[in-house]
Amino acid sequence: MRVHGLTKRFGSLVAVDHVDLTVPGQHVYGFLGPNGSGKSTTIRMLCGLLTPSEGEIDVLGLRIPAQAEALRSRIGYMTQKFSLFDDLTVRENLEFMAAIQGVPKTRTARRVDELIEQYHFSDRQKQLAGTMSGGQKQRLALACAVIHGPELLFLDEPTSAVDPESRRDFWEKLFELADAGTTLLVSTHLMDEAERCHRLAILDQGVLVADGTPSELTAKLYGHTFIVEADDPRRAQRALVDAPEVLGVAQVGNTLRVLTHAGGVDTGGAGQYLRDLLGRAGQVVKVHAAQPNLEDVFVAVTRKSRQEERMA
């Protein structure tokens, strides 16, 4: 998948702003961003469900939206909200989606049996979908989305309403699909999910602010990360939150995780800056450099892009 200059305007609102993307085949590619960052709008344009205001889209060798009809039989799309039929059984939902997706009738029963086994519904195939748990519904929705064996699968916030164990099981299924040759594009606002992706893009206010593997993004972090131990973490946080060189402060248990600007200052200098700042606030602290994570990257690139926007 290749995208160049992808833009979507709704009146004066620019929801997606000149995004360039290349999604490799057989990868789990993540879209990370807060609600309202343009993830869902981008996915709908890539699927051919929404016409872009500007830009070029090439998906599986097809020009979108001109060839969107030819694309639909080759992709799957799973939305955030459970969109199957509560009053149909597991098997009936799968059979209905097979018919919708044009799976030949001679192959439908075998394909439904395969998915019931693969997605662990053997003892629930006669259960009404509306009576299942959130995690079971998400597994069923995924099974329905791949009933026709799509080459490319779009998933829009697929696990936002399920428990951690169900999320782990769901992600195992995604990697099994990637191993079998499917390319997956997954939007999320959850950092632990983003870390699972082979590669990811970070969107903020419709702008692509970072793109790479999780390790590449953390290696290129614009800033320094520290753990601060303080006698009064809440008071220490208040002293740091508006400091000009501090990008973000988050309390983690009894410590603070602090991200500072890079600004030509090395880690030692940034650490001393925090000690001096907190010392003037009457705090006795210990400051340790920490390994950056994706949350640090997200804070750094989004704050940096917003500062650049204000200065433009």
Radius of gyration: 23 Å
Look up the CATH topology of the largest domain.
Rossmann fold
Low-confidence stretches: none
Task: Record the strand order, biggest sheet.
Answer: 6-7-8-3-9-10
GO molecular function, one term: ATP binding
Family: Belongs to the ABC transporter superfamily.
Organism: Dyella tabacisoli
InterPro entries: AAA+_ATPase, ABC_transporter-like_ATP-bd, ABC_transporter-like_CS, ABC_transporter_ATP-binding, P-loop_NTPase
Describe this structure in words.
The protein is an alpha/beta fold. The protein folds into two domains: about 1-215, Rossmann fold; about 220-290, Alpha-Beta Plaits (2-Layer Sandwich), CATH 3.30.70. It contains eleven helices and 14 strands. The protein has helices at about 40-45, 70, 90-100, 105-120, 135-145, 165-180, 190-195, 215-220, 235-240, 265-280, 295-310; strands at about 1-10, 15-20, 30, 55-60, 60-65, 75-80, 150-155, 185-190, 200-205, 205-210, 225-230, 245-250, 255-260, 285-290. A hairpin with a 2-residue loop joins strand 12 and strand 13 (about 255-260). Helix 3 crosses helix 4. The protein starts with a strand and ends with a helix.
